[in-house]
Amino acid sequence: MDIDLVPIWTAILALAVFMYVLLDGFDLGVGILSPFAADEDARTLIMNSVAPIWDGNETWLVLGGIGLFAAFPLAFAIIMPAMYFPILVMLLGLIFRGVAFEFRLKAHRSRYLWDHSFFWGSLLATFAQGIVLGSFVHGLEVRDNQFAGSVYDWFAPFPLAVGVGLVFGYLLLGATWLVLKTEGAIRDWARGWSRVALVGVAIFIAMISIWTPLADPHIAARWFTWPNLLLLAPMPIVTAILVVWLWVALDRVHDAAPFFAAIGLFALCFLGLGISLWPHVVPPSITLWDAAASPKSQAFLLIGTLFLLPIIIAYTGWSYYVFRGKVRADTGYH
Asked: pLDDT under 70 in the chain at which residues?
């Protein structure tokens, strides 16, 4: 009897996506904040807060992409042509963001060019990721298990709104990360940006939470029919509590609390997304089981993945442990 491996692969991909959004999200947020730093020394310091770890964060993007291709090939074949241009912009943005770390360190007269590269690469990658997410939630047109829409379907109000919302979300992660990692004037500056980003995040959470059930009756039924209404009611309540806690935490001396509150907000949004879309991997028509590879293929791939995943988790945790603590001007990226 074949064992159903779809739930296991779903959990692996969900972990990969969440870890990427969380970890690469804060360093993209730092990149978006970088041009607003007080001076070049402050900009260098905030870049140094993510320089030792940014490339390891992108391991989760690779794991998620390869896992989708290997375990759910039909979903990969539909999503990629539908999201071709946003994914291309995202990858180009990540390339420019990564190159900026190396070139800015050695540059003198051209350093301003790499400052722009760091900012625009981070901003475009974030906005493109939001468009991909918004298009995915909005749904893709599929006929005969093939993408049947236009390559410009992503250029619509909902995906663009989600793109802007994700910019505020990564800003929040980046600003609260800087509260955690810096001191003095830079930390105070990051607290101010955290409040600005939090207001934007709260507005977009409320807007998307209203927009999606109004646009999709299946999502409305998932959240507003009995007994789901009772079972899921704690989620928006806890989200509101986290928003208030984060705002209050920004006035206190515990520098870690705002960052962990921001992580909690992202976790709740991610969970809410999963509840809304389950069991579809390509909304609104292709389920996880429809898109899954053969059980033998999934089992073969799972052996290597279960060996590799603990290694990724271990070196991710170790890198954050090694580079723990505050970033200071006398230590940097070399």
From this structure: 1-2, 107, 329-334
